[in-house]
Amino acid sequence: MDAIYRALLAGSGLTYPQYTVLSVLRQDGPAPVMALARRLGLSSNTVSPLLKRLEAQGLLTRDRGAQDERTVLVALTAAGRGLAEELADVPTRVTAASGLTEGEQDDLVGRLHELAGALQAGTDR
Q: Domain HTH marR-type: where (predicted)?
């Protein structure tokens, strides 16, 4: 799967983690760093360098919250939104390249959700 994503993202100049950040912001809109990290299933320490690189590329902005300066709000720029829109079909193309039937895909997604839940339950102890 990694090779498929790399091939599909090669022309964009994005890594898979950077792509996921843009994709989530495209779907959900602007978000605080902590909420974005939770949505991605990553720590804020992992997400912050990704955001810094994407900001340097002009794809997103990071602004301090007006009411709480400890909060950093992340939003796509016009260039970031445009790139995210261009890449919106990547999941469909990955699915097609996987060779799995729709039923197999649904089964895989269900099992991955079960695994993620079990892993989360293990860390909550």
A: 1-117
